[in-house]
Amino acid sequence: MYPEMKLSTKPIILVVDDDLNILAVLEARLSSIDYRVLTASGAEEAIELLKNRPVDLMITDVKMPGMGGMDLFSAAHEIRPGLPVMFLTAYGTIPDAVKALKAGAFDYLTKPFNGRELISKVQEVLKNSAPKPTPDALPPLNESLWGGKSPAMRELYDLVDRIARSDVNVLLLGESGVGKERVARLLHQRGHRREQPFIVVDCGSTPSGLLESELFGHVRGAFTHAIKDKKGLIEAADKGTLFLDEIGNISHDMQVRLLRFLEDRKIRRIGEIREIPVNCRVISATNVILSEEVAAGNFRQDLYYRLRVVTLKIPPLRERREDIPILAQQFVENFCKNQNLPLVKLPAETIKWLCEYPWPGNVRELKNALEGGVVLCSDGTLHKSDLSLSGLPDAPQKSPAASGDTSSLSLDQSERNAILRALQQAGYVQKEAAHLLGISRRAIHYKIKKYGIDCGKRSSAGHEGD
Q1: Which domains does the chain have, with CATH numbers?
Q2: Which of 9, 152, 214, 358 has the fewest C-beta atoms lying within 10 Å of its C-beta?
């Protein structure tokens, strides 16, 4: 093994590539800013260097004769656990690089690479490759995500833990209410940017005419009512994380501006010529199927690929029913504690009812329903009748498996009935109905359209709530 004491404080970078020209270019670029560079033309040579020399960062090609980059990555971590690794990849092998990121690599660079981008990424990796927080510093992921031991959630925990410390763009997919923003916050909190800002942009609720100013900022006099300079949310996220919620809602013009920022990492405030560099991680989320929006021409394909370097799909609650008892107990305990209320009991029949209900609003709906039920229950025990008073149906719809129906008709019908009941209780004010169901206004608009629900009976107050 290599000696513990280094002869120099300069970072040592090991570069591995079977193309000698690329090795020469990388060595020249990295040496020009005073890094010490070791080179290897193959994985076997790199392993010997790792065994005998101190290394602060390894940059390796993905495709090489004999042992490839992925196998070298595994071997390197057996020799040097925690060694930061960057991958060089051609466009055709980007999926391999993404796989490496999920396995714990720090970043990747596509060939042909820009020299400045190379230096910038190397500096960022070396700066932020400090040891991860001790286990006591951060709560277990299953606790941070409301609990749950289902296979789908265990897989999600593993992926969050692996990619949190990288800087790659992440696209979170999942229905409304599954906890996409919570996952985004976890990626931020468990990464090296945790001490920097976490900026949330709700693209779904911000009018398109205001979104440009919100994201990019403006200078005084740029338009009517622009009475002073305003920093945009992208600029506010510098050094931290930018979370773009409901990204599928942005206009075509905003898609173009956002794409340019993701490519150049620079912004220009409205009414200003000067460009401002911004270094932030971008996490986006949507409850629509973006690939279908791309096919329909509603969303730019190049922006889609920029956003989804790594994709995390958060499962709906109905696909992990074994987690419902754990979540229910946790929500009830936390609410009682926060409100200084005696602990409310959850009997077996109520748990059974909760497990059978399809939960169209997912975890958010479950949480809201239980909090309302805790307030309404009168004998210290939460019954399903207490939950029905919060706008939920009196009885859950049986699952297709239980009824012998292999289609999704019964779940859809139950969801449609829940939405109808909420609309009726809210006087067809969609905003209020969405609140009762624990889902977003955009989600209820989508569901109404999906199930062909006639809202023509709604009053003028209902129009105001849309």
Answers
A1: 12-128 (3.40.50.2300), 148-313 (3.40.50.300), 319-465 (1.10.8.60)
A2: 9
